Amino acid sequence: xxxxxxxxxxxxxxxxxxxxxxxxxxxxxxxxxxxxxxxxxxxxxxxxxxxxxxxxxxxxxxxxxxxxxxxxxxxxxxxxxxxxxxxxxxxxxxxxxxxxxxxxxxxxxxxxxxxxxxxxxxxxxxxxxxxxxxxxxxxxxxxxxxxxxxxxxxxxxxxxxxxxxxxxxxxxxxxxxxxxxxxxxxxxxxxxxxxxxxxxxxxxxxxxxxxxxxxxxxxxxxxxxxxxxxxxxxxxxxxxxxxxxxxxxxxxxxxxxxxxxxxxxxxxxxxxxxxxxxxxxxxxxxxxxxxxxxxxxxxxxxxxxxxxxxxxxxxxxxxxxxxxxxxxxxxxxxxxxxxxxxxxxxxxxxxxxxxxxxxxxxxxxxxxxxxxxxxxxxxxxxxxxxxxxxxxxxxxxxxxxxxxxxxxxxxxxxxxxxxxxxxxxxxxxxxxxxxxxxxxxxxxxxxxxxxxxxxxxxxxxxxxxxxxxxxxxxxxxxxxxxxxxxxxxxxxxxxxxxxxxxxxxxxxxxxxxxxxxxxxxxxxxxxxxxxxxxxxxxxxxxxxxxxxxxxxxxxxxxxxxxxxxxxxxxxxxxxxxxxxxxxxxxxxxxxxxxxxxxxxxxxxxxxxxxxxxxxxxxxxxxxxxxxxxxxxxxxxxxxxxxxxxxxxxxxxxxxxxxxxxxxxxxxxxxxxxxxxxxxxxxxxxxxxxxxxxxxxxxxxxxxxxxxxxxxxxxxxxxxxxxxxxxxxxxxxxxxxxxxxxxxxxxxxxxxxxxxxxxxxxxxxxxxxxxxxxxxxxxxxxxxxxxxxxxxxxxxxxxxxxxxxxxxxxxxxxxxxxxx
Length: 819
Prior knowledge:
Oligomer: single chain
Domain TonB-dependent receptor plug: 142-219
Pfam family, one: OMP_b-brl_3
Main location: membrane
CATH superfamily of the domain at 231-249 and 417-464 and 472-815: TonB-dependent receptor, beta-barrel domain
Structural class: mainly beta
Distance between the termini: 53 Å
Largest sheet: 22 strands, antiparallel, barrel
CATH topology of the domain at 231-249 and 417-464 and 472-815: Maltoporin, Chain A
Radius of gyration: 30 Å
Protein name: TonB-dependent receptor
Shape: globular
Number of strands: 48
Helix content: under 10%
Keywords: Cell outer membrane, Membrane, Receptor, Signal
């Protein structure tokens, strides 16, 4: 027995020696963005069926280091929403470094009736959420505004204003930089950028010091398409719909050798009817009319041309330069019909008028960008430099007439011209230096210059002078210039210690602002410097599960119309007036988030807290003046009114219960407490609201894709009123035809025609017979765009074939090995 035991021990020792372990390591990154792929799976599957798989997951920087037993393996690199990579017959008989591997997101066309490896709509990561456009059927034929309305954590109201977790102060970047494309009129500009020009949107709620401190709510980074497949590739998209709309676009590239030329070009013709109404009761003693009922119908016609044209040259295997020009042209003709009935206190009709505004608008935007990138060495040392110049010119011309319906007389005849111009220049340099495997140092500079000029001209027919000549309104005509230069420096240091990692940064920004009111020759200058610390902590509990804690300080700078003291107006009785004394708002943000992946389920949750000082509020007040019709003139003016505290909970879910059913959902609940007073009146309020989104994708028999999207925005309130809840439902279906070379998609936006804002607004309190009452109470509805039906046809050429050739085999992704 002793001999048998000794023999067994000897055989075990020999087997142990034969199964010696070696160190394997490498790094995985996203090929498109260069971002590390954290919690990606690396598996070593032995040819011996009795040996269990080995391996593990990557860390927060995409690195992995494992001890693997000697042998021959099939090695798999896998990450959710990316193409998996497989290498056969890999022999591990020494320490092995697989180097830097670039995985490609899964956008290949599928031939099977059931989707096996389809790209998901939402990619959840620790530092951001990435919304991929490719497979979202509901935004085909839409705009950037439609895209953002489907992004987790983001809400877009009926007027196109974007908010992140309920905060409307959001910085919108194009390709990681401020852009004139979304400069002066962000909501309108987003409606003119086509959805098919966008590759993805990154949602960054806890930005590091690398990013601008602008935007107290966070950052939305819109990444435009830049195809880079070998050869000549592309697709053509044609669209039509009801209300009347037509569109034609091309997206593609030509890549040969070290050169790549890419473009996304399209033109669109669209009609966009909308409507609004309001019922207002005035309590001011100066009001000649007690009740005013107003109805507005919008008949809009928009023509738009958009092109992004770029050239990339690979200087070496590790460096390249990209030149890109983006041009957008818009030509709109809008007719707004405004019917107003005015009543006395006994509901007797005093006057009925019909006001028609015919407006033409031309807009030219152009942006030039040069990017240089150099991966200096295999250790990750990197230098990136960008130079950008952009310009936006906008002209609006409006003829406005108003007739007395009862007397059939012309009451008002106006001619308005508004001119706006913005110039934007940017220089940015970022340097990254890894120190060993677990330490990273980063530093950079950004200089951002903006020059914005707004001019408003109004002349009005004077019916009291013989001949009824047009007379200039010197009380409204003005030219206003805003010039801003922000110089910024930042440093940040990151380190990983076992399962814990942190990234600490500090950003310094100097802001110089010159304001020139040309009409009055009044100038003002502001110069201030601020420090913006950031800290992000991460702890990995186990593979696919981690906590992170982030802190950052942000700023909101007043610009343009918010500073212009001359009133502009959307109607005679409703005017907006800027406040030249408006100061920046500073916000401290804290966020605790948790992410877990298991199988086909990914859950990301966060608890966040924001504290803002000198927060802006738009106050509506009765000026005490009346129009020629006797309507009290209500003025809206922004003021540094309040301290604002916001605490919220957010949950985002990706779940694939079956191969034919994919669910993306997010829910956001927050409480907002605002404390502040204006002109001895308390405007404090407490508001709890939420919004939820459910996006579902089904693969039906016959290779038909069906998608539904439901958005629900809960009721809310502000300092002067409240708004009702809004439910919106969108549906879309798509079918691949012609051997998967083409697709046809049918969609309906706002299925129940329910996307309308219903709100109640109360004016400042006034004393009437010794009692405090609101100066007015207004119930209103607004629908910017009615329900629409869209049909799109997409034809692809060479894309599918070239993707397969680049993969090299059926299991691989488009990847590169370095080191």
